[in-house]
Every structure is written in C-alpha cells, then in structure tokens.
Amino acid sequence: MTDTPIDAEKAFTGTTEPQGEDRLDLDRLAEWMRDNVSGFEGPLSQAKFKGGQSNPTYRLDSPSGSYVLRRKPFGKLLPSAHAVDREFRVQSGLEKVGFPVAPQHGLCEDESVIGAMFYVMGMVDGKTIWDGSMPGSTPEIRRQTYFSMVDTLAELHRVDLGEACLESYGKPGNYFGRQVERWTKQYRLSETERLEPMERLIEYLPATIPEQTRTSVVHGDYRIDNLIYDKNEPKVLAVLDWELSTLGDPLADFTYLCLAWVTENGGRSGVMDLDRKALGIPELNEVVTRYCAATDRDEVPDMNWYIAYNFFRLAGIMQGIKKRVADGTASSAHARAMSERVEPLAQTAWDFAKRAGAE
Description:
Blueprint: H1 8-12, E1 15-16, H2 26-36, E2 45-49, E3 57-62, E4 65-71, H3 84-96, E5 104-108, E6 118-122, H4 139-157, H5 175-190, H6 196-204, E7 216-218, E8 227-229, E9 236-239, E10 246-248, H7 250-257, H8 276-279, H9 284-295, H10 304-327, H11 335-339, H12 342-355
Antiparallel strand pairs: 1-2, 2-3, 3-4, 4-6, 5-6, 7-10, 8-9
C-alpha cells in the first residue's frame, strides 16, 4: 500500500480559525466551564486543531490556562460512533492510576451548550511526531522514542481494571469476534460500492477468530502520532484519541502498532521502506521482544491474521469517512484524501489473510 507522500508535520500541526457552524458559542461554553472546570476564568478564545478526522477538536485559551475540547460532529452519525463520553470515562480512569493521559476536566452531555456532546481536558505541553522517520532526529533518540512507545502500550495493557474503575468499560471475551461484527456492520451502513476484497474478508475473518487469552484496556488507534512526547527527551507525556477504546484483547493494540513495519512511510507512521538501521528505528522482532518482556509473554502468535484484521478495520473506518465526505459532514480538509484509501486497504488486508491461510 503506497500513499502519496505528504508533509504531515505541516498538514496536521497547529490550528486554524474555525469557520461557520464549526465556531463554538464561547459565551455559553464559558458559562458551562465556570460551573464545571475547577479554577476556570474567562473569557475564552478558540482555534480548531488541523489534525484528526473524526471528533472535531479545539484549543481553548483563557486567563486560567489552555484547554482542549473534543465534541461529536454535527449531523447524522453512525450508531455508537464518536462516543466522546467514553473517551472521557476511559481517560478519567487511567488518569486515576497514573497512566499518561491529559488531565480530564469535565463532560457535557447537554447538546444545547454548543450543539453537541463534548468534554474538556487540559492542554499537555509537548510535541507530536507525525512522521515515523522522525526527520531531524538522531538514531539514538529515534530508537528510544520507539521503545518508549512500546513501553507505554505495555503499561496500558498492565493497568488494573478495578483500580481504574473500568471493569465494565467493555464486554468480556470474544473481542475479535465482536470487532469483526462491529466493523462489518459499520462498513455496510456506510457502503458506497461493492469491493470484492471486503466481501471475502467479511466471510473469512469471523470463521477464523484466534483465541483470546487476556483482557485489558485496548486503545484502538495506538500509533506514533496519537502520542504527545516530551519536547526534550523520548518520553510519552500523554496518549490521545481514545474514541475506539474498549476492553479487549491487548494483541489487537500491539499488532495494530506493528502495522508501521508493513506500511510504507509516505510521510506518516509507516517504516517499512525506510533504512531503519541507519535511522536507529528498531526492527519488528526487537519490538516484539520488548513488548513480550514487559507483558510477561513468551511470544506473539503469527501476526498475519491480526494484520489482516487491522487493515480490514482501517478500511471500515475509512469507508465511514468516505460516506461522511459524500454526506458533507466530514470534519477535516484531509478527509477526502483518506476516503480514497478504502480499496487499497481492503486489498492489503486480503493479501495478509491469504498469508494466514485464506483461499
């Protein structure tokens, strides 16, 4: 799968002035924040982050500090999608046990305030790495950055669900079965044309689900650009974008992270076509070994099925974006380009399914 290279740093970093209906009612919002956010003082100013395709995200500045607001998109949405209340809940639980997330300030389920459900969290002062090649960095910093990413994921998978009050955050068992069913349903709800690889995957995946041996919080979109790093050292300060999180099989997260090693860079998180040795980026077997050591595993099973599943799920997500582009409700200027990735993602998923034994 090859994407046209982009300058992700330029495309996704920073904010823009929200336009039209994207503008928030700052008077109503400030009134809500005075009642619900400890220490808040108005007035507010707003800007919209460039990055992100799904839940529109804003930077809010005020005399009491800077905040981040994430809201549901306006308009008709797919069932169970854009659950900002779940994002707030999981981050609040993880914050309680010391896992690196942004400080959570409050959830507003009253749509009359700004027109959609939203939550407010603290602004974490750090940097986002959009390009997996980490231009301008050194081999040692790159290596330690990747290991920090793996270590943080392992830490997530070791979180005690009881201590984090997240025992009921998802259904127990059969995670992959439920996920395949969910993304098949979401794909069907947003389907715009028939794709033969998707039809084959929809038949193959549910018939070949691997056994689930562990349950943990699963982030659902864990990759290098969904983390905030310390500006001066390879340390993760916060994990972002918890929209797809639930309880499930931790191997879903880990094998999703491993997609970077089977995806070309194209200016984003892939490292398959990079000179990893020269750059200092660890090889996949080193990443597997480190994750296994941190999570007390002997090994990770053959990855081909898991990688097929992850590409299938990505195709389902992109199909949702494609439908929102068609309906005029996509939140990002980059959504249209992303929507064109459905077919190549589906084909890549089927290629890995064949490696796993599909016929």
